[in-house]
Design goal:
- By secondary structure, the protein is mostly beta strands.
- The chain has a single domain, classed as Lipocalin, CATH 2.40.128.520.
- The chain is built from one helix and eight strands, in the order αββββββββ.
- It has an eight-stranded antiparallel β-sheet with strand order 1-2-3-4-5-6-7-8, with no helix packed on it.
- The longest helix is centred in the first third of the chain and has 20 residues.
- The radius of gyration is 17 Å and the shape is globular.
């Protein structure tokens, strides 16, 4: 009986691992207003078990751009290497990252965020409220 239970627990954990792998990795960010490709963001799992995303490469703008609108430790930090997705957890039922914060480097403001795969792309929902009613989406491409 124990072997059967262990088998199903292992099977469930492999399924969750496959789901989250659809979110991890490198994504091209696309401006939801202009349609321009802006940067490459790498989404990864941190040592604390939560998920993060950093700007790996800027695709537009001058080299060496800094986050002038950011506050605290992020103020004047280079955009390349800046962690813009912070402390998200994976919800296997909804197949999404949630309960974290998303930094908008243009305004320096943090928003509630959730991230989920859709049609081979990734949707980032940033919002003013935790439920996601007051916000907007960006679709990122692999």
């Amino acid at each position: 009986m124990r072997k059967i239970v262990l088998f199903f627990v292992l099977l469930a954990s492999l399924s969750v691992g496959a789901q989250v792998k659809a979110i991890l990795g490198d994504w091209k960010t696309v401006d939801d207003k202009t349609g321009e490709k802006r940067s490459i963001v790498t989404i990864y799992k941190g040592t604390d078990g939560l998920y993060y995303g950093k700007i790996s490469k800027m695709l537009m703008g001058e080299p060496g751009l800094k986050c002038t609108e950011c506050v605290d430790a992020d103020h004047n930090a280079p955009l390349e290497g800046l962690i813009i997705i912070r402390g998200m957890s994976f919800n296997a039922e909804k197949n999404q990252l949630e309960n974290g914060r998303v930094l908008d480097p243009e305004s320096g403001k943090f928003y509630y965020g959730k991230i989920y795969p859709k049609d081979g792309n990734l949707v980032l929902r940033g919002s003013l409220d935790k439920r996601g009613f007051l916000g907007r989406n960006q679709t990122w491409i692999r």
